[in-house]
Amino acid sequence: MMMQYMKELEQEPFDPDEFVERLAWRTVADSRNEGTGHFDPVLLHETFLQAIKDLQLLQERQQKKCERLEIMCREEENGHWQQISQLQDRNKASVSMFQELDERINYVATKVIHLGDQLESVNTPRSRAVEAQKLMNHFAEFLSPGPLLAEVFTDKTQIDEAADIIQKLHLIAQELPSGKFEKAKKKIAAKYDEIERSLIEEFVKAHRSDDKGRMKEIATILSHFKGYPQCIDAFIEQSQMGAFTGKDVFHDVIPLCEKNFSVMTEVFSNPDQVMAKFVLNIYHLKLQKYIVTSLSDRSDTDRYLKNLYDLYSRTVKLSNDLSHFQMGNDNMYLSKLTMNIFQKYLDSYISVETKCLKEKSAAVLHRYYECKNHQKKQIQTGGFQDLRRDLQAVIGTRANFNIAQIENYGGETFLSEEVAIALLQESKLAFRRCELLSRQSDMPGNALQIFEILLHYLMAEHLDYALELGLQSVPIPENKTQPQISFFDVLRQCNAIIHLLEKQFIDSLVPLVISTPKHGDCLQKKKYLLEQIEFKLDTGLDRSINAIVGWVKIYLQTEQKKTDFKPETDVDTLASPACLAVVQYVRSMVERIRDSLDGKNVEALMMEFGARFHRVIYEHLQQFQYNSAGAMCVICDVNEYRKCVKEFKVPLVNTLFDTLHALCNLLLVKPENLKQVCTGDQLAGLDRSILLNFIQLRSDYKTQKLSVSLKGLAT
């Protein structure tokens, strides 16, 4: 049972209640198995007593076992503490010994250093004396007549040692006086040059065999010789040999530099200086020759400028790409190389540019006028010419024949957006070249020169000339033939060209002159020319509107019959043929005006056109008398005019014709209703004299004695 109790007690977790229950259950189960079948409390009591005794015995055993283990643990702990104490003592002894050893090592080291210094102080003079003796022996050989017999100078495998000796002898020889040492100095100089040449030749061989180690050794030796630059030159010559075989020199530069820069870094002690000379050789011998050949022909200035722009931009880009290589402390080195090549071309650039731009602009205009079979002529402008035109118009109207010679060139405007675009494109290219090829200080002035040429050929020679022709082609007012106004086409094309000019001004010119006094000059020149153009456009529009309304006036005077508004018999109340013809013509003019202008300009011109058209119709209607049938006809005419002017899309003009329609109603209403109509909303604001003048146009004005009934209205 003791083992059974141990198993149960060692279970995790241990539950004492469950332990008691299992003990009781086993006791009851055993009694039942014996066949009694009855619960025996005495047996259960005895079982519990026995279990308690067993557990007490088990506790005593475990207690003794724990005490024994604790004694063993304390003994082992004491043993470990003793070991730790011994180890600490040994560690203290070791530290003390280490300190003693360190002090002894320092003492020995000091002695060694002192001994080394003493040995060096003895050995250095000795080695120098040995070297001096060696040099003296070699110098003595140079003093003796005949060839050199020393193996170091005859054996080519000892050239490095020979180079060291001859370099030192050469320095010594420089300090010796002439006279008895003259022959020796010459022999030393000759051997110096011979060894120097041999080293350079061997350097070239090593370069060809790609032996960078040997190249570095020779370069280090030659760095003490006068011929060291020749070594660098030989390296550059060998490195660039076979390069630049293609047509495009620029294409080969960067790969060649990248390939050789790594070799320079490995071989030379001063790779940045070698790289600077390497690039200098490329710029002066390769690029310059290529550029001079490309720019030698100036017979075609346009091609010359394109080549100059292309070559300079590619050279600048090449310099920027090469800037990541180390080439010394001069940050402007590559820029200076570029300027050395292009200086003479850049100095004369703007004179070539302006000459080319003038020639090309003149050629564009010449081809255009030649295509139109037109010979440009001198145009007289000014107040006298305008006065002459006005006098011709007045005389022609009074004398009933046309003495003014108006030439409209078949509706040709002699303006071309294609020509303008061509001129603007040429100047755009010129501005682009100006930005790249001009000095920073000269750029605003050069840009202004290009802009002045553009203004001269585009604005003065083309647009202003076409405007003058357009002004002269506008028919005189009060012409009997229906005027064909080509000036509206001139206006439309002018607007398009000016918009193109403004865009180029902002995009191409302003960045070149901004924040300089030339910016103000450019703005002033543009403003002056545009004001002149605007004045002439206004003059042309004024003449065009006068021609239109003048023809309307003459046409209505000649085609409108008195019987249209005072028929003898009943007629259909339709708009008169004269009215319909006028409306059709005016509508066509409105459509052309809207095609030619935009924005507020359309509204302003339509308002002026509408006001003048209203004045002509108003004055025309006052030339007739109207009976009731004629009043219906005139109202039909006015309705047609109202429909027409609605296309003007100007509220004020609509109001004018609505008021005219209301005035025409005075010709139709019954006499007794006149006062009521006159005080209506549409007519209440008009001057009473206007109302009376219209009422007097009634055919029944006198018969109905309307003047008497309207006396109150007159006051």
From TrEMBL:
<protein>
    <recommendedName>
        <fullName>Exocyst complex component 5</fullName>
    </recommendedName>
</protein>
<dbReference type="GO" id="GO:0006893">
    <property type="term" value="P:Golgi to plasma membrane transport"/>
</dbReference>
<dbReference type="GO" id="GO:0000145">
    <property type="term" value="C:exocyst"/>
</dbReference>
<keyword id="KW-0175">Coiled coil</keyword>
<dbReference type="Pfam" id="PF07393">
    <property type="entry name" value="Sec10_HB"/>
</dbReference>
<comment type="similarity">
    <text>Belongs to the SEC10 family.</text>
</comment>
<dbReference type="GO" id="GO:0006887">
    <property type="term" value="P:exocytosis"/>
</dbReference>
<feature type="domain" description="Exocyst complex component Sec10 N-terminal">
    <location>
        <begin position="43"/>
        <end position="155"/>
    </location>
</feature>
<dbReference type="InterPro" id="IPR048627">
    <property type="entry name" value="Sec10_HB"/>
</dbReference>
<keyword id="KW-0268">Exocytosis</keyword>
<dbReference type="InterPro" id="IPR009976">
    <property type="entry name" value="Sec10-like"/>
</dbReference>
<keyword id="KW-0813">Transport</keyword>
<dbReference type="InterPro" id="IPR048625">
    <property type="entry name" value="Sec10_N"/>
</dbReference>
<dbReference type="Pfam" id="PF20667">
    <property type="entry name" value="Sec10_N"/>
</dbReference>
<feature type="domain" description="Exocyst complex component Sec10-like alpha-helical bundle">
    <location>
        <begin position="161"/>
        <end position="709"/>
    </location>
</feature>
